[in-house]
């Protein structure tokens, strides 16, 4: 609230808040069934390893649910929880969460009132005594990984930018009058950038963060702009048609002010990409920042419009 200028604040999510407070790189992992890329096993392994290395801060949030569902499970609808710990014990996987309200806890499996699931060995390993926990509700609880991805909606990651040796950014504006409302057939008027990466032996990771600038509270409250980043493997040339060539990474248009694209390079040498900023049904002029993080050397620049003069002909 302090960052947004006071208590007249429309609300946010933990990903946006942590980026504003820390500058760490935001990433969103949707866990619901329509996200075909979510893999529960590899996702847990990644969270477990990177959390314990100190590379990332993790929060998770519930989705829309009825008041009855929330009361039954001890969950607050559309609410964020901090991840305090991640553990694995004899094939069982757990996360320790904290409700920032410091009360209202999970009522499902492995809650303090679950007398069937807890064993003395597991209690010792997780340093948790259900009988002691029953005496005070501090909003902290353990939840099984299987229950988290069943009853929660999204995981928010905030990555330490110090993981990358190189970074740079470009600030720019996309005028609403520039090009058609939809870019389904032509990308000629979309902002485009050339990224050339010098990949060493052993491979490298390159992340591109697209951040739309929030200029007023109404914009922040309603999030009407759907943005994304589309990546093409090219020689850095301008792209005119969305499917020619096919996208190397085709982004999903979401109404979040941040969109993170990850590129993993495995072969050494020079790799060149065209990055295209895209919107769904462009309505307003947007101001944005593109920031590139890389483990290796790269160059990054805007692709100029090749035609300096244009003229419209009206046929009668």
TrEMBL record:
Give one Pfam hit by family name: Peptidase_C2
Residue ranges constituting the Calpain catalytic domain according to the UniProt record: 1-161
Residue intervals passing through the bilayer:
none
| Keyword Transferase included in the entry's annotation | no
Gene Ontology biological process terms, A to Z: proteolysis
Sorted alphabetically, which InterPro entries does this protein's record hold?
Calpain_III_sf, PalB/RIM13, Papain-like_cys_pep_sf, Peptidase_C2_calpain_cat
Keywords, alphabetical: Hydrolase, Protease, Thiol protease
Which GO terms label this protein's molecular function in UniProt?
A: calcium-dependent cysteine-type endopeptidase activity
**Would the keyword Protease turn up in this protein's UniProt record?**
yes
Record-given protein name: Calpain catalytic domain-containing protein
Originating organism? Micrurus lemniscatus lemniscatus
The organism's lineage? Eukaryota, Metazoa, Chordata, Craniata, Vertebrata
């Amino acid at each position: 609230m302090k960052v947004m200028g006071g208590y007249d604040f429309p609300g946010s999510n933990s990903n946006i808040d942590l980026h504003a407070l820390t500058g760490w790189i935001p990433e969103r992992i949707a866990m619901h069934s329509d996200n075909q890329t979510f893999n529960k096993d590899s996702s847990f392994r990644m969270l477990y390893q990177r959390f314990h290395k100190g590379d990332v801060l993790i929060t998770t949030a519930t989705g829309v649910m009825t008041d009855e569902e929330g009361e039954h499970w001890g969950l607050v609808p559309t609410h964020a929880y901090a991840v305090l710990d991640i553990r694995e014990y004899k094939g069982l996987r757990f996360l320790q969460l904290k409700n920032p309200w410091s009360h209202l806890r999970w009522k499902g499996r492995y809650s303090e009132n679950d007398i069937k699931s807890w064993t003395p060995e597991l209690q010792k390993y997780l340093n948790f005594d259900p009988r002691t926990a029953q005496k005070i509700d501090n909003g902290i609880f353990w939840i099984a990984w299987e229950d988290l991805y069943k009853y929660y909606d999204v995981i928010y990651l905030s990555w330490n930018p110090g993981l990358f040796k190189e970074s740079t950014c470009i600030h720019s504006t996309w005028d609403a009058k520039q090009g058609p409302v939809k870019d389904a057939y032509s990308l000629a008027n979309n902002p485009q950038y050339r990224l050339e990466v010098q990949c060493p032996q052993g491979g490298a990771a390159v992340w591109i963060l697209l951040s739309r600038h929030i200029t007023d509270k109404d914009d922040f409250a309603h999030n009407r702009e759907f943005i994304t980043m589309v990546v093409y493997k090219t020689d850095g040339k301008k792209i005119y048609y969305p499917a020619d060539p096919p996208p190397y990474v085709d982004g999903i248009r979401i109404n979040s002010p941040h969109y993170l694209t990850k590129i993993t390079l495995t072969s050494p040498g020079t790799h060149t990409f065209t990055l295209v900023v895209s919107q769904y049904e462009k309505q307003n002029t947007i101001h944005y920042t593109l920031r590139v993080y890389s483990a290796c050397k790269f160059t990054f620049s805007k692709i100029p419009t090749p035609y300096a003069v244009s003229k419209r002909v009206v046929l009668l």
